[in-house]
Design a protein that fits this description.
InterPro entries: ADH-like_C, ADH-like_N, ER, GroES-like_sf, NAD(P)-bd_dom_sf, Zinc_ADH-like. It comes from Cordyceps javanica. Pfam families: ADH_N, ADH_zinc_N. GO terms for molecular function: oxidoreductase activity. The protein has 353 residues and is an alpha/beta fold. The protein has two domains: 197 residues, Medium-chain alcohol dehydrogenases, catalytic domain (Quinone Oxidoreductase, Chain A, domain 1), CATH 3.90.180.10; 132 residues, NAD(P)-binding Rossmann-like Domain (Rossmann fold). The strands form three sheets. Strands 3, 4, 5, 6, 7, 14 and 15 form a seven-stranded mixed β-sheet that branches. Strands 10-9-8-11-12-13 form a six-stranded parallel β-sheet, with helices on both faces. Helix 4 packs across helix 5 and helix 7 packs parallel to helix 8.
Length: 353
């Protein structure tokens, strides 16, 4: 079933080999694949980048990547055709992709992680048309554009999982949340925390970005370059007991400071490694001595994403923060280079026409 005459070709990027300067990215036009019985054909209108996409092109991503894969996990657009067994969507529906296509609910697994990730094991969103299993899509929150919606699949859902994904430890009004930097996950974390009535401490290494963080309602800002012991400073700001949640995006290089900031019984959500790795990392004794939970996870489930989308629909202030520089599909390589430079604030996005 289709809404319009279907296209015969698709314009898409591929990752051929690996290269630190993203020369592995290649753009081409290919025949449109046949739509499967359980698949939904989406005219993609927006996409966004994550640090993970850069590491896939560079060859440093720690999870298996298919040869010649179409990159990108995050995308949004309009359903233009459905397979004969599809029941969840109809042509004309606006949808957003799920990061791990098989993670519907409950716990993740090695099988789900290694075989259903868009832009790694499965062809992703950096193309103008894509077929996805109907189970791997959610409805675009009303009021969001496709480009805005395309920021939710990884960064939005990861931040939501960090604050709401651990039973008994969900963020509460009045609690303290510590975020790091001004990337997509951190900014979503700020927004979700403030919407919950929590108080937020944010770190940044850029004096120029302090005003932008203040505009998001951050209560306290620490420059980690001028204050390398920012963990102790965050603990002091939080009344000496420490913060309740840390959204840890930098990885081993900043974990020592996150431990210094956390309260007894607090949760450190380990969700990234943008700061690289270190030879000496805090270990289990550090978690024991600080009396905290260190929780690693990968993005989240469709059930969690649907919860997040309902929250976004209910709160007009929860608008994704998009960097002022938006790229076209043909400019994807430039978008990768821009994100790698670290000059962005919020999500680096692709407008697909």
């Amino acid at each position: 079933m289709s809404l319009t005459k279907l296209p015969t070709t698709v314009k898409q990027w591929h990752v051929r080999g690996t290269d630190p300067e993203f020369k592995s990215l290649e753009f081409s036009e290919q025949p449109l694949p046949v739509l499967g019985d359980s698949e939904v054909l989406v005219k993609l209108e927006g996409a966004s980048l994550n640090y993970r996409d850069l590491t896939i092109a560079q060859g440093t991503y720690p999870i298996p990547v298919a040869d010649n894969v179409v990159p990108g996990s995050d995308g949004a657009g309009e359903v233009i055709a459905i397979g004969r067994q599809v029941t969840r969507f109809n042509p004309g529906d606006k949808v957003v992709t799920l990061f791990n296509q098989a993670h519907i609910g409950g716990r993740n697994s090695i099988r789900i992680r290694d075989t259903s990730g868009l832009g790694a094991s499965l062809n992703g969103t950096l193309r103008n048309y894509g077929a996805f299993n109907e189970q791997g899509l959610v409805r675009l929150p009303s009021g969001l554009s496709a480009v805005e919606g395309a920021t939710l699949s990884c960064a939005g859902l990861t931040a939501w999982n960090a604050l709401y994904g651990l039973p008994g430890s969900q963020v509460q009004p009045g609690q303290w949340v510590l975020t790091q930097g001004t990337g997509g996950v951190s900014i979503f974390g700020i927004q979700f925390a403030k919407a919950a009535g929590a108080r937020v401490i944010a770190t940044t290494g850029s004096e120029e970005k302090i005003a932008l963080l203040k505009d998001l309602g951050v209560d306290h800002i620490i420059n980690y370059k001028t204050n390398p012991d920012w963990g102790a400073e965050a603990k002091r700001i939080a009344g000496g007991e420490g913060v309740d949640h840390v959204i840890e995006v930098a990885g081993a290089t900043s974990m020592k400071q996150s431990l210094a900031a956390i309260a007894i019984g607090g949760v450190i959500s380990i969700i990234g490694y943008v700061g690289g790795t270190a030879q000496e990392e805090p270990g289990f004794l550090d978690c024991l001595s600080h009396g905290c939970i260190a929780r690693g996870f990968m993005v989240g489930s469709r059930v969690q994403m649907e919860d997040m989308c309902r929250a976004i629909e209910a709160d007009p202030k929860l608008r994704p923060v998009i960097d002022k520089k938006v790229f076209s599909l043909e400019q994807v390589k430039e978008a990768y280079e821009y994100q790698w430079s670290g000059k962005h604030f919020g999500k680096v996005c692709i407008s697909i026409v």
